[in-house]
Design a protein that fits this description.
By secondary structure, the chain is an alpha/beta fold. The chain has helices spanning 2-19, 38-46, 57-67, 84-90, 100-113, 137-148, 172-184, 198-203, 213-216; strands spanning 28-32, 51-54, 72-75, 93-97, 118-124, 153-160, 189-192, 208-211. It has one domain (2-216): Alanine racemase (TIM Barrel).
């Protein structure tokens, strides 16, 4: 089932990209494994998945000894400052940099650990949704400039989570605004789009889509914070 679902998701990405004249190769599928048992994830890896996205640091720490370091590990959930060191030991890319204090903590921990530049994306609350993490669009440029001055961070782009809607088209203005914001800041990577709206995200320029449910089905609830 996982293999069949993956094939369908990849086909949908390809069709969405070609529909707007994009090369599908420019869209990376980040397979979201929150709440998914390792045997199912291993099935996805066997089917060629190269990028795993986890929401919680602790869950990733439990899975990685089983799944190994070969996949590229993406932290796509909120990161608490007290878990930065552990996150840097596990993840290759952090999508959820949303405040200066967190950037400073990553910079300090990377220096202490002797780690090279950490790949990061700034999370933007483009829809201005209450209770959602992310810097406001107006404050994004300032945070981006500050992060660019930090030698242990490598800022690659922006990340956004559009509000869930039954009609994926409702997410299009959000994705478009983030694409335009990234272009104005000279940033190439765009992490946007999930199971319910990734095709619209691809059409609006996403370079990474974060898809879990469309591959694995509904997830079990996982205790603990990221």
């Amino acid at each position: 089932m996982v293999g069949k679902n993956l094939e369908e998701v990849r086909s949908r990405i390809r069709r969405a990209a070609l529909a707007v004249g994009r090369d599908p190769v420019g869209v990376r599928l980040v397979c979201v494994t929150k709440g998914i048992p390792t045997d199912k994830i291993q099935e996805a890896l066997f089917c060629g998945v190269a990028d795993l996205g986890e929401n919680r640091v602790q869950e990733a720490a439990e899975k990685q000894p089983v799944l190994g370091r070969k996949p590229t590990w993406h932290l796509i959930g909120h990161l608490q400052r007290n878990k930065v060191k552990t996150a840097l030991e596990i993840f290759d890319v952090i999508h959820s940099l949303d405040r200066l204090e967190l950037a400073e903590s990553i910079q300090k921990s990377a220096q202490t650990m002797g780690r090279g530049p950490v790949r990061v994306l700034v999370q933007v609350n483009a829809a201005r949704a209450e209770g959602r993490y992310g810097v406001s669009p107006e404050q994004t440029a300032d945070l981006v400039e500050r992060v660019k001055r930090m030698d242990r961070l490598r800022l690659e782009g922006l990340m956004v989570m559009a509000p869930f809607a039954q009609d994926p088209e409702e997410a299009r203005p959000v994705f478009r605004s983030v694409r335009e914001l990234a272009a104005s800041l000279g940033l190439a990577e765009l992490s946007m789009g999930m199971s319910n709206d990734f095709e619209v995200a691809v059409q609006e320029g996403a370079t990474m889509v974060r898809v879990g449910t469309a591959i694995f089905g509904e997830r079990a609830q996982v205790k603990g914070e990221g």
